[in-house]
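Work Package 4 report. The design task specified in the project plan requires that, given a folded chain encoded as structure tokens, an amino acid be chosen for each position. We show below one input record used in the internal validation round.
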């Protein structure tokens, strides 16, 4: 089969682009996505915080695919950009004039020895998986004190602020229940600081101080021993890397993440060992194949991998697709906008908005989103999910 436009991936990016293409009048659009359910993953922070059930974040994919888009409920396993063909697990060969690559990323628990086993143990969890986020809430609720360790890699991950949010909501719960005073909380990350935008880093440093969280930067998780409840970190020393072992009673981990295997091992992957797809960071056109566009978590645009970034990338990709198909230059530009809603407590949130300049990029007038606010919490809990389901996925926002 052949289609004018083929979209690989039916998550936030794929559905948004498909909806905008249909609204622009494109009639020959196919979407390749194997999953029966679609998740609004930003809510998993609140699932892990014991605030909403996991079901709140889930809808059937069939209800979200725009009318007129052909949904191939199958998984892409190979892309041949020279022959303009996508091969699926079911054996279909799907030709395209334009390809939109947005399959998301995969959680790479296997890159840290012992981490997958730790996730099956009674003391560790991760808000990054739908089946584990409810476990986080249960572990936090049952915790009675000791050592709580929260970890994040230094390599790119989706919503890089999420590991901090897990720590803040846990600490807020323990503060309310009297457990925090007998708990030592450590946040260890491979990153070099709490956040890359100084204005927001200052606010988050205050949150860390309020909860008494010990921060360890430049600490990359390299091994977990769930039976001994020990996590080993690698730290860059002045002459060589050294290792440090930290014990825990409760462990929350953001696992390393990478492009899906068929992307990572294919011709569209770049030089990154994690397989990110190289694009022009403004046009989101592949650096070697002008008829291929990539957006969302899988592309190597140097900004945070967030739903807010996808919201700004999707209209740029659609405008440039239409220009390409019409034989014009792809001139629409993405400025690197991304946003991270930091839930710092139940009822408090800081909305960090920024762009490629790594400077604040506020979009809500008359409101200081650089401080903890209750109205921003309401935006996180109710406003953003409604916007996502009713507007963004319909190509309207």
């Amino acid at each position: 089969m052949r289609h004018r436009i083929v979209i690989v991936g039916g998550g936030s990016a794929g559905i948004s682009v498909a909806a905008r293409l249909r609204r622009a009048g494109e009639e020959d659009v196919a979407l390749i996505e194997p999953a029966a359910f679609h998740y609004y993953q930003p809510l998993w922070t609140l699932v892990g915080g014991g605030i909403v059930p996991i079901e709140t974040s889930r809808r059937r994919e069939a209800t979200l695919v725009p009318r007129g888009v052909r949904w191939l409920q199958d998984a892409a396993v190979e892309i041949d950009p020279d022959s303009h063909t996508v091969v699926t697990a079911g054996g279909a060969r799907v030709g395209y004039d334009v390809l939109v690559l947005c399959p998301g990323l995969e959680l790479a628990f296997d890159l840290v020895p012992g981490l997958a086993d730790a996730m099956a143990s009674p003391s560790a969890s991760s808000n990054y998986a739908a089946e584990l986020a409810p476990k986080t809430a249960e572990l936090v609720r049952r915790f009675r004190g000791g050592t709580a360790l929260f970890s994040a890699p230094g390599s790119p991950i989706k919503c890089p602020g999420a590991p901090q949010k897990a720590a803040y909501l846990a600490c807020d719960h323990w503060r309310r229940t009297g457990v925090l005073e007998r708990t030592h909380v450590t946040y260890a990350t491979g990153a070099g600081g709490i956040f890359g935008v100084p204005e927001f880093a200052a606010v988050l440093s205050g949150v860390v101080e309020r909860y008494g969280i010990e921060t360890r930067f430049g600490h990359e998780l390299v091994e977990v021993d769930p039976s001994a409840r020990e996590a080993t970190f690698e730290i860059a020393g002045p002459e060589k890397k050294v290792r440090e072992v930290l014990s825990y009673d409760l462990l929350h981990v953001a696992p390393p993440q990478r492009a899906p295997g068929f992307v990572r091992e294919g011709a569209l992957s770049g030089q990154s060992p994690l397989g990110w797809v190289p694009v022009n960071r403004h046009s989101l056109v592949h650096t070697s194949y002008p008829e291929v566009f990539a957006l969302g978590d899988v592309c190597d645009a140097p900004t945070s991998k967030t739903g807010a970034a996808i919201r700004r990338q999707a209209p740029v990709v659609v405008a440039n697709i239409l220009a390409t198909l019409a034989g014009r230059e792809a001139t629409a530009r993405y400025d690197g906008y991304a946003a991270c809603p930091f839930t710092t407590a139940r009822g408090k949130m800081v909305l960090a908005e920024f762009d490629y300049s790594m400077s604040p990029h506020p979009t809500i007038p008359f409101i200081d989103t650089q401080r903890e606010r209750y109205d921003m919490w309401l935006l996180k809990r109710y406003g953003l999910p409604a916007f996502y389901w009713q507007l963004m996925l319909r190509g309207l926002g």
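The mean pLDDT is 97. Validation will be extended to a larger panel in the next phase.
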